[in-house]
Amino acid sequence: MEAYTISRDNLRTWLDTLARDYTLIAPVREEETVSLFKPVRGFAEINLGYTNSTVSPKGWLFPQTEEMFFFSTSDGQITLADAQTPGPAVLFGLRPCDIKGILALDPVFNGAYQDCYYQKRRQDTILVGLSCTRVERHCFCTSMGGGPTDGEGADLLLTEMDDGYGIEVLTPRGEELVNRYQQYFDADRENRVIPAREELGKKLARQFTRNVDTTGVKEFLDQHFELPYWGELARRCLGCGICTYICPTCHCFDIFDQSPDGESGVRSRCWDSCMFSHFTRMAGGHNPRPTQKERVRNRFLHKLKYHRDRYNLDGCVGCGRCVTRCPVNIDIRQIIADLQEVARHD
Amino acid sequence: MTKCHCRNPLKPYPATIVKIIDETPDVKTFQMVFDDPEVMENFRQKPGQVAQLSVFGVGEATISITSSPTRKGILEFSVKKVGMLTSALHRLEPGNKVGIRGPYGNHFPYEVMKGKDLLFIGGGIGLAPLRALIDFVLAEENRRDYGKVDIIYGARSMDDLCFKYDILDRWPQMPGTTVYTTIDRTEPGWEGHVGFVPAYLEEINPSPENKYAITCGPPIMIKFVLQALEKMGFSDDQVITTLELKMKCGIGKCGRCNIGSKYVCLDGPVFYLSQLKQLPPEF
Ligand SMILES: Cc1cc2nc3c(=O)[nH]c(=O)nc-3n(C[C@H](O)[C@H](O)[C@H](O)COP(=O)(O)OP(=O)(O)OC[C@H]3O[C@@H](n4cnc5c(N)ncnc54)[C@H](O)[C@@H]3O)c2cc1C
Ligand code: SF4
Ligand code: SF4
Ligand code: FES
Question: Where along the chain is [2Fe-2S] cluster bound (chain B) (predicted)?
Answer without folding.
Answer: 249, 254, 257, 265
